[in-house]
Amino acid sequence: MFKIPEHQVAGHQAKDGVLGPLIDDSGNFYKPLQNDERGSKEIAFYTSLSSDPRVPDNIRRYFPIFRGTKAINASDGSGLQPHLVLEDVVSSYQSPFVMDIKIGSRTWDPQASESYIEKCLKKDRESSSLTLGFRISGLKLVTSSKDASVWQPGRKFLQNLAANDAKLVLSRFVSSNVSSNDNIHPDRSFASKVFGGPSGILEQLLELKKWFEVQTIFHFYSCSVLMVYERESLMKGSSSSGALVKLVDFAHVADAKGAIDHNFLGGLCSLIKFISDVLEAPVENGFCNNYCSKDEH
Amino acid sequence: MFKIPEHQVAGHQAKDGVLGPLIDDSGNFYKPLQNDERGSKEIAFYTSLSSDPRVPDNIRRYFPIFRGTKAINASDGSGLQPHLVLEDVVSSYQSPFVMDIKIGSRTWDPQASESYIEKCLKKDRESSSLTLGFRISGLKLVTSSKDASVWQPGRKFLQNLAANDAKLVLSRFVSSNVSSNDNIHPDRSFASKVFGGPSGILEQLLELKKWFEVQTIFHFYSCSVLMVYERESLMKGSSSSGALVKLVDFAHVADAKGAIDHNFLGGLCSLIKFISDVLEAPVENGFCNNYCSKDEH
Questions:
Q1: Which of A180, A272, B172, B266 could cysteine-pair with A151, CB 3.0–4.6 Å?
Q2: Has UniProt tagged this entry with the keyword Kinase (chains A, B) (predicted)?
């Protein structure tokens, strides 16, 4: 009945034999409830989100639906354990391309413990969080549907991208010729269908940005933007990409105490700028002039 | 010929007998050139700003005009010392109200030395920088033009404001009844003339915000927004406030390396939200309902 999610790209993964999320055939995503403060914080967040009238409906749809908690057999064989029951946001996709981007140059709540702050600060400094305002936490791109080969760069590489490499990875995400071969320049064939258009990822991020400019309810530390689209249909010529943005991971959400979430907003604006650049880069002038790493010139 | 600037509200001050800025009668502001890296960084910034064609003209006016460097007798009696020669941005004001707000939740460049980072991080955590995305570095409000009494809150108080207190200070800044007496509710008489309107402070900050959403030239660590207006003319019923926004202090500007300045932008957006709230707060419902510290209820 419970399966290991095939399209999870970040976080603890059940396939490695550890405690990780599971899914079922009814579109549910079971996330193990961390038994420290993080678990209770995530439940508190989802509960507050569901009931807070200040969260507008157009914003609510950027969060996975919360269906309560349930004890199920955990993926690590430890028996019945409590899980959050969430909407499996990719359940309706045939062949989703998924990218998980942790937003904000600071992943720690000022109220956290000294040891936790120290750990996070070190990671923020060693990754692109500090420089770009975000870091890519996970990504899995199927490079060939025939043999199901994938391009899944290592965490170290992904998490510490320089600006040019971030543009390269975002470009590969929306290219028909995805490849880990640095000599193959991403064609960005699907940029306008995935990033662009009235229901594309850029418009969704801009809608979120508008809310973050005014909302003084939550501060989202260590929260991710998940970007998803339907790959195969685009490869077959469809014009509909199913481009989707969701916010995920709320174990470190804090009370905003009257100020906007300037840390999340800054990182979100930085991501928006990168995606706009990839979308608007003139193809006719040769992609590599502006958007490849230096070593590709 | 050289005088101590009367309206300087933050930074080292010559009036305390230390090395500090001086002004002359021709509208020049002489800032001692720090003889470590900071001095050369600030010159490099002004030079680059003057010559970089990517900086649009409408943005250039938010920076003080740079007139080179000059050796003058330093304020601490140490003889001829090199100074930056800048535009004295308040020289044309009769009775300026000035507020200096250091923008960004992080005041340190990731490339700085470990000891410098540690010092700044401590200060950011002990101030409102981390929570609000900015801290008020200085403020001097004349409460009575008759006896020239001023309200100049202590640094400790100013730099670690909670959200409600930040609104209170911003409200006092634009009130006719400025007072340090907590029982006197700021009337915000001048909010619409200073913060509002097509040439008010909010519009200027929004113009800067637009630029920060796209500029990938500079990262402005530890840089301040200076807000100025002409006080006496408003008190006498004039409709023109001379509301002015300037960016100052560029000793820690770094190369953007391809990403927007998400740290500055986030803090700027937070300040914009506070100023919008003070501007839009309904006076008829009683200011104190929403915008006073808890202890004033």
A1: A180
A2: yes
User: Which residue range(s) make up the domain with A136?
Assistant: 96-296
Question: In this complex, do B106 and A105 lie within 8 Å of one another by their Cβ atoms?
Answer: yes
For residues A80 and A206, membership in a common domain is answered with: no
Count residue pairs from A and B with Cβ separation < 8 A: 88
What is the C-alpha separation between B51 and B47, in angstroms, rounded?
6
- pLDDT tens-digit map of A241-277: 999 999 999 999 999 999 999 999 999 999 999 999 9
Integer Cα distance of B141 and A103 in angstroms: 39
Query: Closest Cα of chain B to A214: distance in Å?
Result: 7
- Kindly state whether B160 is in contact with chain A, defined as any CB-CB distance less than 8 angstroms: no
Rounded to 5 degrees, what are φ and ψ at B239? -95, -5
Q: Are residues B277 and B132 in the same domain?
A: yes
Question: What are the helix (H) ranges across A127-217?
Answer: 129-132, 155-159, 163-173, 191-194, 201-212
Say whether A156 sits in a helix, a strand or coil. helix
Asked whether the beta carbons of residue B273 and residue A214 sit closer than 8 angstroms, the reply is yes
Q: Which residues pair with B101 in a beta bridge?
A: B136, B225
Render pLDDT for B216-241 as a digit per residue (tens, 0 to 9).
999 999 999 999 999 999 999 998 99
DSSP β-bridge partners for residue B29: B23, B86
Query: Per the domain annotation, does A126 fall within a domain?
Result: yes
B257 close contact with A: CB closer than 8 A: yes
- Contact: B269, A267; criterion CB under 8 Å: no
- ∠ CA(A93), CA(A99), CA(A104), 5° rounding? 135
- Specify the pLDDT at position B47: 95
Q: Which of A199-203, B74-78, B236-240, B286-290 is least confident?
A: B286-290
Residues of B in contact with A107 (CB under 8 A): none
Number of domains comprising chain A: 2
Could you tell me if B49 and B125 lie in one domain? no
pLDDT higher than 70, residue B102 = yes
Q: Which of A59, A87, A115 is the last residue of a domain?
A: A87
Q: Does B133 touch chain A (CB under 8 A)?
A: yes
Task: Report whether pLDDT(B149) > 90.
Answer: no
CA gap A249, A38 in Å, rounded: 10
What's the number of CA atoms in the CB half-sphere (13 Å) around residue B258?
A: 20
Residues B25 and B149 in one domain: no
Residue A96 CA to residue A186 CA, distance in Å, equals: 19
Task: Tell whether B228 is covered by a domain.
Answer: yes
Residue A9 has pLDDT above 90, yes or no: no
pLDDT, residue A13, reads: 85
Tell me: the pLDDT tens digits for B67-97? 999 999 999 999 999 999 999 999 999 999 9
Yes or no, beta carbons of B266 and A262 under 8 Å apart: yes
